[in-house]
Structures
1.
Amino acid sequence: MLKFTAEHEWLKLEGDVATVGITQHAADQLGDLVFVELPEVGAELTKDGNAATVESVKAASDVYSPLDGEVVEVNQAIVDDPSLVNSDPQAAAWFFKLKLKNVSDIDSLMDEAAYKDLIG
Amino acid sequence: MDDQSVLKTTPLHALHISLGAKMVPFAGYDMPVQYPLGVMKEHLHTRAAAGLFDVSHMGQVIVKAKSGTYADAALALEKLVPVDILGLKEGRQRYGFFTDANGGILDDLMITNRGDHLLVVVNAACKEQDLAHMQANLTDCDVTLLEDRALIALQGPRAEAVLAELWAGVSAMKFMDVVEVPLHDVPCIISRSGYSGEDGFEISVPEAHAVDVANALLEHPDCEAIGLGARDSLRLEAGLCLYGNDIDTTTSPIEASLEWALQKARKAGGDREGGFPGADRILGELANGTTRRRVGLKPEGKAPVRSHAKLYADAEGKTELGEVTSGTFGPTVEGPVAMGYLPVSHTAAGTTVYAEVRGKFLAMTVASLPFITPTYKR
């Protein structure tokens, strides 16, 4: 199941763990990324709280946690090479995996059609 | 969209749109921050080949003495600027700044001797204020903002070759030379200078012909349009100040490490010592030093440290030293670069200080400026 947030994140749910990244639209808007800071494995994130930071040449931007949960894995590859987020944001450049506190919370997020309407 | 409707546009605005630029408000103008190439590639392209920048938002101002002589215009402007303008030769350009009575910096500018008058180029955000300042103080001069000219910067190691397609004589120019020549029969004023740390030119073009000249330059395979995003990372790697960030009315030229811009004639013992606003403080700091200085800062990690990040002597944030005034990722340096002010006790190259970024204290090393080796054609 693929879901989206208004903050331009995508979530792919497998069991009770959601893989989280930023959308192609977000990556395009941010421009060339030069720095990524990810949460620690084990961190407890709350919906809409700060989860990660990305920086382009021009500016720093926050990435928010789409739902409540615990970080169970992070993608070191995008820390080592932030440009991966620009080239493959919706697959190889996932950010972190979140073990959801309540799996059913994901139903409140947008599906792909609704997200596409949002970004026009 | 309401914000956009009040923004001014430059003569190249439609060209930016047609090239697919992402436009942002800057100093009251709708300006290209980047093109489809993106900030990173635009920056690297400028260092490797040639970049074309629209800097038409900057103010081009003619200062002409009512007497008609260059010397009278030069001596008048010297009352506002601590630079030797009288000694500037015809067809030569020099960097300077307007100072205030406290020795702070009102704006920085480029000053050219154009034979019987001065051409000065000031920052977009300050141009109305600068114009009023000159008109109020240079009462024996006519001070005129040129509102019908575009300004196009062409920067990079291939800039000469690109411009040579339009005018073969360009190769004879040296850094800070200024000439008036026709490009495609359009009378242009060309200076060999810029804001990137690279060899290059700034070309003042009559508004009606700006698009033609820009397109003629962009036709060259080595030349790409470059936005304000890369302009900022290029100038920061080159150690050049951005007015409003690195210098303003709270910083003196000596604190800003700009003493190289003051020539002998205006310093203690010179033919025209002092005689500019804030001279007591500025000449006093030249003689006795100052408490803080602008320095280069190289973050040790990968995280960019941006302007207004606080600087500390220790990794716990106990002893505050100063603030970062510009900071970004330097594509050529392949890492973050910054500038800021530190007490003179901490300005030796190699000194470690700590910047507060998102609650963490990141080590930075004081570095000599510029971060790259400039390629000006001296």
Note: The first strand of chain B starts at residue 22 and ends at 26.
2.
Amino acid sequence: MDEIDKQIIKLTQDGISLVHAPFAEIAAKLGLSEEDVINRLIIMYKEGVIRRFGASIGHRAIGITANAMCTWNVPDDRVEEVGAIMSGFPEVTHCYERPRYPDWPYNLFTMVHSYTKEDCINVAKQVSKATNITDYRLLFSEREFKKTGVRL
Amino acid sequence: MIQLDETDKLILNTIQLDFPLELHPFEKLAEQLNIPEIEVLQRLERLTEEGALRRIGPIINTKETGGTSTLVAVKASLERIDEVADCINSYPEVSHNYLRPAEYNIWFTVSAANEERLEQILEEIKFRTGCSLISLPTRRLFKIGVKFNIR
């Protein structure tokens, strides 16, 4: 990733313009061709610098207002298998393994987004049934103090 | 809450994952979805104004850009929630911060340029708030914010 790549990220991370040729203004600002900008974005995507290029949804605005962090106490030797099963649920938007602590022994973390709190509870029940992991905690967000994208 | 019609849903479900990186991406999208380009653009403008669409752009992988990140859980007493949340929010490196009632009740994510800076932020927050906290960095990633199934 060089300085030009960083500039391209900075000029696109707040969203490209909704116009026929959205990369033209970015190219003009950097003195590149539109093809150069697009090719660099594709390379950054292939190399994993960009995880995904696409729309970020205002999920609350469209009614997907419930979100739960569901934390699971999964035996260490089952993490790979259970993580794969959990990731298969469309309502599970994130799934990570994290370290355990004496007062927080849950090592798999999933985010569940859905339309209602009840939906989230049901998804957790289905996940529990599918994985046979019964020691879990469902934490609903009661307030959002801050939410921004990760920025360069 | 915004009412979406079937065409809005089709567009939003498509561009979360398959946004074409081309000279004229909305034209390409219009062809794929069999909707005129001008209508795609008008709908996206409206969806942006209404808050259904935040932006179309890159989602960055901080690991690959040399940064480091973690999830932090904080134990704050209820009467100090706002003060502690404000202190955490004051760091631009903090991207998400939520109240989630449990033994640990403030949960935030932080991305920093390097480990030293991350450590410094956590030490400062501990010192400034007097709260105990645990850092839960990702050990293995199975899935990340792929898409919302809009129905």
Note: Helices of chain A lie at 3-12, 24-30, 34-47, 79-87, 117-131.
